[in-house]
Amino acid sequence: MTVLLAAGLGSTVVSAQETASGDHVKVRWLAPETFGPGQETIGFYFEVDPGWHVYWRNAGDSGAAPRFDFVGASGEVGDIQWPFPVRLPIEHLTNLGYEGDVAYLFTVTPAASRMEIVVNLEWLVCKVDCIPGYGNMTLSRPVGERAQWPAQDRQLRDRFAARVPQPAAGQSFPWAVSNLSAAAQGDSLQLILQAGEGASEPPPPQVFPLDGGLLTAKAPQLERSGDIIRYTFERVPGAALTPSTGFVVSDGTRAWQLDDLAIQPASSSAPGSQPQSAGAGQPLWLLVLAAIAGGAILNLMPCVFPVLSIKLFGLMGPEAAAAGRLKEGLRYAAGVLVTFAALGGLLLILRAGGAAIGWGFQLQSAPVVLGLILLFWVMALSFSGLYEFGHRLMNLAGNSRGGAFVTGILAVFVAAPCTGPFMGAALGAATLLPAYGAMAIFLGLGFGLALPFVLLCAFPALLNRLPAPGPWMETLRQFLAFPLYATVIWLLWVLGRLVGESGWLIGALLMLAVVFAFWLGRHQFRGSRWIAWGLMLVALVVSFGAANRLQDAGVSPVAVESQTGWQPYDRNAIGQALAREQAVFIDYTAAWCITCQVNKKLVLESDEVEALFRQHDVYLVRADWTDQNPEITRALGELGRNSVPVYAWYAPGERTPVLLPQILKADMIEALFTDD
Amino acid sequence: MRQLLAGMLGGAALLILPSVSLAAAVPGAKAPDFSEVDAAGKTHSLEDYAGQWLVLEWFNKDCPYVKKHYGSGNMQALQKKYTDQDINWLTVISSAQGKQGYLEPAQAMTVAEGHNLSATAPFLLDADGSMGRAYGAKTTPHMFIINPEGQVVYAGAIDDNDSANPAVIPKSSNYVAAALDASMAGEAIAVASSRAYGCSVKY
């Protein structure tokens, strides 16, 4: 980040002076006699009386960093670079700064024949008592072919330049950050560094916090076991926890800067203590109401409707007595509710175990997706009227006592990908609410899903309004096979995203094997049935085994396409973009989320919207949640969501995102840019 | 299993930690008790201000940052504005005898007059540092706001600019005024804690 300052200095120079001084402090330039044409690092050299000190960028518990107010320069002036400090215990406090001499450095790039700088300085020098100092300094040196330094000044400059932290991202950083965590209610913050390979037991590095508002300057408590070094910092009492913070790490001669490290919630939350209610002020009943509405909307989704239709046909049959209908409806509702309760219980158990999961997680497992492909394929074939199997399933669903119950279970399982707009918020809250609240939301969803069906059963009048059974049903049933085929195609694509291209192959071969097995089974030559069953068994074992192994082997899913400028999710890269005040748009998406795909094709990747994003230099992030990705799960959790799509917009300079509706329209994106 | 164990240990740690942590005035927590004699010889304690708003300000006449806010009249204007609204304001000197900023009662009365102090009482003289330490006062100035329920609602710097130059005051955002105004209007306080800047309190 550099500043281009106006030239035209002549008038602003009141009294040209190359030095400044005050009590216990003398300041002079570290600069070449003649500047070269390119960038040069120069500095303010502070000579401080023994026993007195000046300050680092984070001054610590008291004191203040010096200020350099550039009034004008005939060129580009960079930000002040702060050599790493030392801890200065001053009575009951700790300061971060420098005892004795120090040089504050910055880069300049001349843009004229002379390099001229005018700057106002303010500093604070302290022993125990503090004395502020003020001054203004000018620099005026010729610009020539190459820079010419007084040897001693250049050495001084280099000495301090070596102490300026470099980004910790590079190869040279000898440690890796394994964790940064803080309990929301605690009064400490822990940073865990891991020494790199071959580190021959060097002394643990010094770590200085960049944010004096969050952490005190007191030396952190240090624990070491093997390669792991744990720093426990004391937090400023009462200071709100920030989402991220930064540190400077120094081995005593060099230093590295860790910017925008995300602070994880401490994993060691007390047993029994519930996560903070993140309903964010929304009362539980409202969330449950939203869940019920969300569940009801699921009925209209193409994933659920075919399953319900099987059941409805069963009810409309002449054999279904009116009195039996309500029972059927209630059995269906019981199936739905029991499944939701089981899913809720599972979620709570996994949550308690600290697993990072979310709604739709069942679609992040390749074997589950393969199972769904099989289920929909068989259902589609039967809907098309090719196999009796389907009729038998339908009869089973329609007639047996357990039928309605099973249909209910089925309905829940297939509804997951069709997460409706209401479900997002409700489920997001469910993962963060206390256990009873989370369960209430799950049951609310189930209640909503079952409600229309139960109503139809309870009021046969409604049912009678439905057209009488007839040949049209066969046509409708055959028609409904097509959404199922479409679902199969889509699930194959999901499988491909999960385990790579072999996913398609495995899925398609399984489908082929199933069809072939059915064909064999229908032909009454000797042993054909046994061969059919055998083939089926082998196909199942092989395909599921392969899918499972591929996913375990971590075959990388198809990389996020980046030709349109979308970057894969990287928390630190996003932090950097926010730090340089660039606008950020995050598309939380997944291959198995239909709404996401529609929004992506119709809105996000339309020419107008892409042009808008380019024009405003928006940092675009595609957070792909198709596969299990705990980082993205956590990011969603922080937004109070646990499902996709989520669209997060960070306006330039903003650190709290605006969440866009789940159904995107191009004008919503335009509105982001017209407001300012 | 390991996670469960870690969770239980962490939970136990959470229960123990607060009891060993240093006493300090923390936003959201009950304000520490105090009982100090002011320069005029009158004793003030926290109970005296129960049911009322109270601002505490740490003072050292020789600290450049105190000079910044008194020399410019900024601190006195703030004191006047809020004491006029029946908010109590106590200015505390925690400098120990022989340290910078220490004042005998008679001197303190003179300094209060010379500084046009508009606090509720002349300086509280906390020469043994008991009140300052109880509050965790680190710097001069260091500001605390206590609500009528006896809870600390703000702790930290007077404003967001740690320059010693009084010229920056008009451009600075005053945390104390913002917190008091928000509280009076029944709104939440946006910044309840900040890094107190200034000179160290000379205990």
From TrEMBL, chain A:
Residues 36-138 form the Thiol:disulfide interchange protein DsbD N-terminal domain. The chain crosses the membrane at residues 284-308, 329-349, 369-390, 402-423, 435-463, 475-496, 502-521, 530-547. It holds the Pfam family Thioredoxin_7. The keyword Protease does not apply. It comes from the Bacteria. Keywords: Cytochrome c-type biogenesis, Membrane, Transmembrane, Transmembrane helix. It is a multi-pass membrane protein. This is Thioredoxin family protein. Gene3D superfamilies: Glutaredoxin (3.40.30.10). InterPro entries: Cyt_c_assmbl_TM_dom, DsbD_gamma, DsbDN, Thioredoxin-like_sf. Residues 285-492 form the Cytochrome C biogenesis protein transmembrane domain. It is found in: Membrane. SUPFAM superfamilies: Thioredoxin-like.
TrEMBL record, chain B:
Transmembrane segments: none annotated. Residues 1-23 form the signal peptide. Keywords: Signal. Pfam families: AhpC-TSA (PF00578). Residues 25-181 form the Thioredoxin domain. The keyword Protein biosynthesis does not apply. PANTHER family: OS07G0260300 PROTEIN, THIOREDOXIN-DEPENDENT PEROXIREDOXIN. This is Thioredoxin family protein.
